[in-house]
Amino acid sequence: MIFRNVPRWLWRSLGAVFLCVALVATAGCGAQKPGPAVVGGSAGPSTAPGAASPGGDPGWARGMAVVRADALPRQARDVLALIDKGGPYPYRQDGTVFGNFEKVLPRQKRGYYHEFTVRTPGERDRGPRRIVTGEGGEFYYTDDHYETFKAVLR
Protein backbone atom coordinates (compact mmCIF):
# COMPACT_ATOMS: atom_id res chain seq x y z
CA MET A 1 0.00 0.00 0.00
CA ILE A 2 1.29 3.47 -0.90
CA PHE A 3 0.42 5.09 2.48
CA ARG A 4 2.03 2.42 4.65
CA ASN A 5 5.16 4.41 5.56
CA VAL A 6 3.47 7.75 6.35
CA PRO A 7 4.18 8.77 9.98
CA ARG A 8 1.18 8.92 12.32
CA TRP A 9 1.87 12.58 13.20
CA LEU A 10 1.53 13.51 9.52
CA TRP A 11 -1.83 11.73 9.25
CA ARG A 12 -3.10 13.58 12.32
CA SER A 13 -1.84 16.93 11.02
CA LEU A 14 -3.48 16.41 7.63
CA GLY A 15 -6.71 15.34 9.30
CA ALA A 16 -6.70 18.48 11.45
CA VAL A 17 -6.07 20.68 8.41
CA PHE A 18 -8.93 19.07 6.46
CA LEU A 19 -11.23 19.41 9.46
CA CYS A 20 -10.39 23.11 9.80
CA VAL A 21 -10.97 23.73 6.10
CA ALA A 22 -14.30 21.91 6.26
CA LEU A 23 -15.42 23.90 9.30
CA VAL A 24 -14.44 27.24 7.75
CA ALA A 25 -16.15 26.36 4.47
CA THR A 26 -19.41 25.31 6.10
CA ALA A 27 -19.47 28.21 8.57
CA GLY A 28 -19.59 30.70 5.69
CA CYS A 29 -22.37 28.89 3.83
CA GLY A 30 -25.20 30.09 6.04
CA ALA A 31 -23.89 33.60 6.52
CA GLN A 32 -25.80 36.35 4.81
CA LYS A 33 -24.35 39.50 3.40
CA PRO A 34 -25.67 42.45 5.38
CA GLY A 35 -28.20 44.28 3.27
CA PRO A 36 -29.75 47.71 3.36
CA ALA A 37 -31.97 48.71 6.26
CA VAL A 38 -35.64 47.93 5.84
CA VAL A 39 -37.54 51.17 5.33
CA GLY A 40 -40.92 49.71 4.61
CA GLY A 41 -42.63 46.40 4.26
CA SER A 42 -41.65 43.49 6.41
CA ALA A 43 -38.87 40.98 6.30
CA GLY A 44 -40.09 37.57 5.22
CA PRO A 45 -40.63 35.40 2.18
CA SER A 46 -41.43 37.31 -0.96
CA THR A 47 -44.76 37.01 -2.67
CA ALA A 48 -45.70 37.24 -6.30
CA PRO A 49 -44.60 40.43 -8.06
CA GLY A 50 -47.20 43.14 -7.65
CA ALA A 51 -48.94 41.55 -4.64
CA ALA A 52 -49.15 43.96 -1.73
CA SER A 53 -47.69 43.12 1.65
CA PRO A 54 -49.57 43.96 4.87
CA GLY A 55 -47.46 47.14 5.16
CA GLY A 56 -48.76 48.41 1.82
CA ASP A 57 -45.54 47.82 -0.14
CA PRO A 58 -45.72 45.37 -3.03
CA GLY A 59 -44.62 41.84 -2.14
CA TRP A 60 -41.52 42.02 -4.32
CA ALA A 61 -40.27 44.93 -2.17
CA ARG A 62 -40.66 43.05 1.11
CA GLY A 63 -37.50 43.11 3.21
CA MET A 64 -35.81 45.76 1.04
CA ALA A 65 -35.15 49.41 1.51
CA VAL A 66 -37.75 51.33 -0.46
CA VAL A 67 -37.86 54.75 -2.07
CA ARG A 68 -40.77 56.57 -3.63
CA ALA A 69 -40.22 57.44 -7.29
CA ASP A 70 -40.75 61.14 -6.58
CA ALA A 71 -37.90 61.03 -4.03
CA LEU A 72 -35.36 59.75 -6.59
CA PRO A 73 -32.84 62.13 -8.17
CA ARG A 74 -34.20 64.02 -11.17
CA GLN A 75 -32.02 61.98 -13.54
CA ALA A 76 -33.56 58.74 -12.25
CA ARG A 77 -37.09 60.12 -12.65
CA ASP A 78 -36.18 61.05 -16.24
CA VAL A 79 -35.06 57.46 -16.88
CA LEU A 80 -38.33 56.13 -15.44
CA ALA A 81 -40.22 58.37 -17.87
CA LEU A 82 -38.10 57.05 -20.77
CA ILE A 83 -38.79 53.45 -19.69
CA ASP A 84 -42.53 54.21 -19.62
CA LYS A 85 -42.28 55.64 -23.17
CA GLY A 86 -40.12 52.76 -24.44
CA GLY A 87 -37.12 54.95 -25.23
CA PRO A 88 -35.11 56.22 -26.96
CA TYR A 89 -32.33 55.65 -24.48
CA PRO A 90 -29.08 57.66 -24.45
CA TYR A 91 -26.76 54.68 -23.81
CA ARG A 92 -26.51 51.60 -26.02
CA GLN A 93 -26.35 49.39 -22.92
CA ASP A 94 -29.77 50.61 -21.74
CA GLY A 95 -32.38 47.89 -21.83
CA THR A 96 -29.84 45.07 -21.83
CA VAL A 97 -30.16 42.05 -19.58
CA PHE A 98 -29.01 42.57 -16.00
CA GLY A 99 -27.35 39.36 -14.80
CA ASN A 100 -27.87 39.87 -11.03
CA PHE A 101 -24.43 38.30 -10.50
CA GLU A 102 -24.18 40.07 -7.14
CA LYS A 103 -27.37 38.23 -6.11
CA VAL A 104 -28.70 41.26 -4.27
CA LEU A 105 -32.05 41.14 -6.08
CA PRO A 106 -34.34 38.11 -5.78
CA ARG A 107 -33.14 35.23 -7.95
CA GLN A 108 -34.93 34.92 -11.25
CA LYS A 109 -34.25 33.28 -14.59
CA ARG A 110 -31.73 34.94 -16.88
CA GLY A 111 -33.35 37.71 -18.88
CA TYR A 112 -35.87 38.60 -16.17
CA TYR A 113 -34.08 41.85 -15.22
CA HIS A 114 -33.01 44.71 -17.51
CA GLU A 115 -30.84 47.69 -16.62
CA PHE A 116 -30.92 51.36 -17.54
CA THR A 117 -28.26 54.00 -16.90
CA VAL A 118 -29.04 56.95 -14.66
CA ARG A 119 -26.67 59.76 -15.55
CA THR A 120 -24.47 60.86 -12.67
CA PRO A 121 -23.54 64.56 -12.78
CA GLY A 122 -19.79 65.05 -12.88
CA GLU A 123 -19.05 61.55 -14.21
CA ARG A 124 -17.41 61.18 -17.62
CA ASP A 125 -18.60 57.60 -18.11
CA ARG A 126 -21.93 55.93 -17.26
CA GLY A 127 -21.33 56.31 -13.53
CA PRO A 128 -22.64 54.03 -10.78
CA ARG A 129 -26.37 54.77 -10.86
CA ARG A 130 -28.87 52.40 -12.49
CA ILE A 131 -32.54 51.53 -12.65
CA VAL A 132 -33.18 47.79 -12.95
CA THR A 133 -36.60 46.55 -14.03
CA GLY A 134 -38.16 43.12 -13.61
CA GLU A 135 -40.62 41.35 -15.88
CA GLY A 136 -43.20 41.44 -13.08
CA GLY A 137 -43.28 45.25 -13.02
CA GLU A 138 -40.61 45.73 -10.37
CA PHE A 139 -38.33 48.75 -10.37
CA TYR A 140 -35.08 48.94 -8.40
CA TYR A 141 -32.61 51.80 -7.99
CA THR A 142 -28.91 51.58 -7.16
CA ASP A 143 -26.52 54.46 -6.73
CA ASP A 144 -23.50 52.30 -5.85
CA HIS A 145 -23.17 50.12 -8.97
CA TYR A 146 -25.24 47.11 -7.83
CA GLU A 147 -23.92 46.80 -4.26
CA THR A 148 -27.28 47.80 -2.78
CA PHE A 149 -30.73 48.34 -4.25
CA LYS A 150 -33.87 50.14 -3.17
CA ALA A 151 -37.29 49.05 -4.36
CA VAL A 152 -38.86 51.97 -6.26
CA LEU A 153 -42.49 52.54 -5.34
CA ARG A 154 -44.42 54.23 -8.12
Automatic annotation (TrEMBL):
Do you know which InterPro entries this protein is assigned to? N1-like, Ribonuclease/ribotoxin
| Identification of the protein by name | Ribonuclease N1
- Is tRNA processing there in the keyword field? no
Which segments show compositional bias classed as Low complexity?
Answer: 38-55
Q: Which domain of life is it from?
A: Bacteria
Q: Which UniProt keywords apply?
A: Hydrolase, Nuclease, Signal
Region Disordered, residue ranges: 38-57
Signal peptide range equals: 1-27
Record flagged with keyword Nuclease: yes
What does the record give as the organism's lineage?
Bacteria, Bacillati, Actinomycetota, Actinomycetes, Kitasatosporales
PROSITE patterns from the UniProt entry: PROKAR_LIPOPROTEIN
